[in-house]
Amino acid sequence: MSIILITGVSSGIGKATAIKFAQQGWDVIITARRKDRLHQIASEIKSVTGSSALPLDFDVQNRNETEQRLNSIPENWKSIDVLLNNAGLARGISAIQDGDIEDWETMIDTNIKGLLYVSKVIMPWMIERKKGHIINLSSVAGKEVYPGGNVYCATKHAVDAINKAMRMDLLEYGIKVTSVNPGMTDTEFSLVRFKGDSGRAHRAYSGYEPLHADDVAEVIYFAATRPSHVCLNEIILTPTAQANAILPIKRTL
To answer: How many CA within 13 A on the CB side of residue 68?
Structure first.
């Protein structure tokens, strides 16, 4: 039995990846804040794929809750082969001098601290087994900065640095570490960034076809299923119409 733990599964890339792995016979541990949606997805996975799904509802921003819920995982589920640190978000698109400090804290607490809280629990289990793969979902925003991205880009640059550090620190234990860095992807990401403004969120993808959650899930599955001697350290993927973190973002926001 192969097991993957995925954070932030209530929508988008997290949900698509959980379904992708379950379709291939993996059992999945799925986490998210939205309990009703999370349990609905778990039921969907079980009924459609036949794989087992263990839902854990908690907020990765909350260290104590994260530790308690992960440590409550039954022993037969703790042999986790892949951890996908997917939970993350952007809030706002203001210039840094106009930024909302609460938005900054939410991004820092989720994108950086949440990733660390989850990893801190799971890494010892992988180290003990001398086996495992951590995949950190970052962004092209972790490679370049774009206007209005400031703190969000900073959090994803931090993920890039953490990913590289994990790769070095976990090398002696045979644990793989990969960062996946998507460009513009049509999920709830922009709806969250624009705080529910669906019109503005929709315009972010106008004029070209963005990536879809399934596209990113395919890449994550590919990275996770390479032979044991092969590790993809980082992957950058964008829509054909997007050259980097600025284009076409500059003309669409």
So the answer is: 8
pTM value is 0.94
Provide the domain count of the chain. 1
Q: Which residues are catalytic?
A: 152
* Tens-level pLDDT at each residue, the chain (253 residues): 899 999 999 989 999 999 999 999 999 999 999 999 999 999 999 998 999 999 999 999 999 999 999 999 999 999 999 999 999 999 999 999 999 999 999 999 999 999 999 999 999 999 999 999 999 999 999 999 999 999 999 999 999 999 999 999 999 999 999 999 999 998 878 788 878 777 887 777 888 899 999 999 999 999 999 999 999 999 999 999 998 888 775 544 4
Which CATH number covers residue 178? 3.40.50.720
Greatest CA separation for the chain:
51
User: Taking each helix axis from N to C terminus, what angle separates 35-49 and 12-23, rounded to the nearest 10 degrees?
Assistant: 20
Q: Give me the domain span that covers residue 199.
A: 3-252
